[in-house]
Amino acid sequence: MADLQRAVDELAARLERPLLLEDRHQRVVAYSEQNGAMDDVRRDSILRRHTVPEVRQWLRAAGITEATGPLRTPGAPQLGLLPRVCVPVRHADGLLGFLWFIDAEPPMPQPAVAEAARAVPGLALALFHESLASGLASQRELEAVTGLLLGERDAARQLIEAGAFPQAQPVTVQVARPRTAEPDDALRLALEQGLLALRRRLSGHHPLHLMRYDHAVLLTAGPPVSADELHAAMPVPVVVGVGRPRPELALAAESYREARHAAEVTARVPGLGRTAEWARLGVYRMLTQLPDRELHPGLEGLLADAQYLPLLETLETYLDLAGSAVATSKALRLHRTSLYYRLQRVEELARTDLKDGGERLALHLSLKLARLSGRYLPREPPGPS
């Protein structure tokens, strides 16, 4: 509720105009300081926390429930109602509520109406959270799951005592990150709605969820949900990381840390596919713990110049395939003579010797580290590693 009230107050301050926010049933959820024009309906709505049936009927007849953008509604003196600007708060096809401005003394300028419409995604996210306010399923669950993923053991006790998770069951954490889109309020709301729809289908797994800044978190009792089911629930393409199961809920933070790292690796290494389990990440499990400053010194110049990208791709494929010239030529569809030329150029430019096992290991690990840091972005999917 605090986030919602803050958003309402900030918007009213920007527009220099009082406002009132209702949910889709036209119950008052939040309102700013009322320092402008006031009518009987606004006053009664604040006092009663809802709009009376006659006014609801009048406003709905004006089209507020069907509107997809701001609209101006006429006044009704017989009801004590001044003209208004209504900004429906929607996400996708769902109506979450209404943002109201009194459109008198003076009328609301169109640029201010447009700015109010731009605030809808943020209000939709806050209003959506508020609409979940039913027992532990809302704020208390949010706080408990947040604490749980921070490693607070008391949070697990709260969830178990509230019946949100079984005491004797192991827990698995999965993390979904948008593949391409930058996170914003609208995207976070869409991801959370996807998680909630999935939770309804997974009630036997005692699911819990949390929406973070750039990723969604799903906790389930027992083994993880099927990756296909999780991907299908998400409204945008995502990559999914899966942590290893832990024997009790109090250890969920360990599975979460692994799932988050697995999702990060999957986002940066497209060849791993859409889903990666921490237990199957191989060398990337170790590399996520290392600083990317410790690269092979000979690769620095190659990484800094885009013209050398084909050489780096050739080198990585060659090392991925255990130094087999035959397999590398076939994988890259490259003549053997051209392959040897490229490898020789790598040796010259990187001041290295590919016949030296230690050098090959250092180069191989450095390429993988450069992938994770974003300094090396090959055009082709990697071979097996």
Name some characteristics of this structure.
385 residues; alpha+beta; Beta-Lactamase; Alpha-Beta Plaits; Arc Repressor Mutant, subunit A; 3 domains; 5-stranded antiparallel β-sheet; 5-stranded mixed β-sheet; 16 helices; 10 strands; 46% helix; 14% strand
**Which class of the largest domain in CATH terms?**
Alpha Beta
What's the quaternary structure here?
single chain
Mean pLDDT: 87
Question: What is the count of distinct domains?
Answer: 3
In CATH terms, the superfamily of the largest domain is: GAF domain
Class derived from helix and strand content: alpha+beta
- Overall 3D geometry? elongated
Question: Which percent bin holds the helix content?
Answer: 40-55%
Order of helices and strands: HEEHHEEEHHHHEHEEHEHEHHHHHH
Strand order of the largest sheet: 2-1-5-4-3
Low-pLDDT stretches? none
Give the DSSP E fraction (strand runs of 2 or more residues).
5-15%
Major sheet, described briefly?
5 strands, antiparallel
- Count of DSSP E strands? 10
Q: Please, how many helices?
A: 16
First-to-last CA distance:
48 Å
Judging by the overall fold, what is the CATH architecture of the largest domain?
Answer: 2-Layer Sandwich
Briefly note the CATH topology name of the largest domain.
Beta-Lactamase
Protein name: PucR family transcriptional regulator
Domain PucR C-terminal helix-turn-helix: 311-369
Domain CdaR GGDEF-like: 155-265
Organism: Nonomuraea salmonea
